[in-house]
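job 3f2a | input accepted
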Amino acid sequence: MKKITFLMIGLATMLSQTVTTQAQVTPPQGVEPAMYVFNGHDTYVDRDKSFEVQIVMDGDQVYIQGLSEYYTAGWVQGTLADDVLTIPAAYMGTFNFWGDEYALDFDGATFAYDATANTFSAPDGYTTSVEGEVLDEFVNVTLTGAVAQAATPAQPTITEFTQDNYGYYIKMDIPVQDVDGNDLYASLLSYQMYYMKDGQVHEYVLTQDNYIFQEVESLTEVPYTYTDSYDVDEGGKQVYLYGDDIDQWTAFGVKSIYRGGDEVNESPIFWYQLVETGCADINAAQVTNTRYVDLQGRSVSGDARGLLIKVERLADGTVRTTKVVR
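job 3f2a | predicted structure (326 res):
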């Protein structure tokens, strides 16, 4: 398989000339998607993967959302006949990665459908590509229908509240488990942030004025799986904060919310006390540690393929992040 070798700078301009002429798959309105669990093997990193996808079945037409790890909003459409689902090559959509846009294509696949087990299976798997270069690459893929039970999510924690070259940010640990340690479905989990000022609790709202790559006007409750590939990492692993009065905040909080089994359950708010948020001027410093993470925030090797974030820790304790594509 070919590796992605294009440079990110200037790619958005090139893609804008091709994206506008392609039709994006959308499911029919009024049909509720069903949640399925993806299990498959990523042949490039030689690792099993598991995540959630959404499926809409409308007669013999089947729509699947989330087959790409890099653009979970993208849909594909196939025809089901004699328990075989055939999905042709199709344009999945344009996703934003740190301000640049990338057109993503699904390269086609065939799934065997088992109505009794409620599964779709594709031993040969499938690939997705950007400008003809492979991005996702899976084999031994099975999509299994899932039923979510009601559960109370475990309390999240804030592990860091600090400042770097770009501004203030927090790092959070939001468990995808309930209070008893059982796994939850990430697509049904969300989190909400708060700050305390002058003894009053305020909701922290993500607005388009500050989060310029956000597609909706405002977000108060943030889906666990949400990322704008710029200021907000999936799972709240790192979120940049905006506000003229951050230095007046005395605490910052977060709670988890889970919607399963026709119930909405919340964790207690975890509060991170802010003794002092002001920082001295940040100057250039020697790099003491370098690591790479993927879009899901997982550590990967420096030669891993795909869209990565290079994280450098400087001698003065600050962190510098840059985007990398291979």
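job 3f2a | The helical segments are 11-19.
job 3f2a | closed
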